[in-house]
Amino acid sequence: MPRSNALAFFLVYLACLVLLGATIGVAHLGLGALNPVLNLSIAAAKAFLIMWFFMHLREGSTLVRLVAFAGLFWLIILFGLVLTDWLARSGGPLG
Amino acid sequence: MSTITGEMPPRSYLRAGHTIRSWLLTTDHKRIAILYLVTITLFFLIGSVAAGLIRLELVTPRGDLLSHDGYNKTFTLHGVIMVWFFLVPSIPTTFGNFLIPLMIGARDLAFPRLNLASWYLFGLGGLFTLYALVAGGVDTGWTFYTPYSSMFSNGHVIAVIVGVFVVGFSSIFTAINLMVTTHRLRAPGMTWFRLPIFVWSHYATSVVMLLATPVLSITLLLVALERGLGIGIFDPALGGDPLLFQHLFWFYSHPAVYIMVLPAMGVVTELVTAFSKNRVFGYKFVAFASIAIAAIGFLVWGHHMFTSGQSMYAGFVFSFLSYAVAVPSAIKVYNWAATLHKGQIELAAPLLYALGFIALFVIGGTTGLVLAALAVDVHVHDTYFVVAHFHYIMVGGTVTAFFGAMHFWWPKMTGRIYPEFWGRLAALTIFLGFNLTFFPQFVLGYLGMPRRYHEYPPEFQILHVLSSAGSMALAAGYLLPACYLLWSLRYGARAGSNPWGAAGLEWTIASPPPTHNFATTPTVDFEAYAYPAPEARR
Amino acid sequence: MSRSGAVAEPFTDEAQQHEAATLGLWLFIASELMLFGAIFLGLAVYRLADPAAATIASDHLHLWLGGVNTAVLLTSSLAMALAVLAARAGRPRPTTLWLLATAALGLMFLVLKAYEYRLEYLEGLMPGVGPPFPLDRPVELFFNLYFVSTGLHAAHLTLGIAAVGLFAWRTARRRLPLPEHATRMEGLGIYWHFVDVVWLFLYPTLYLI
Question: Which site among A62, B105, B267, C105 is 20 to 30 Å from C99 CA-CA?
Answer without folding.
Answer: A62
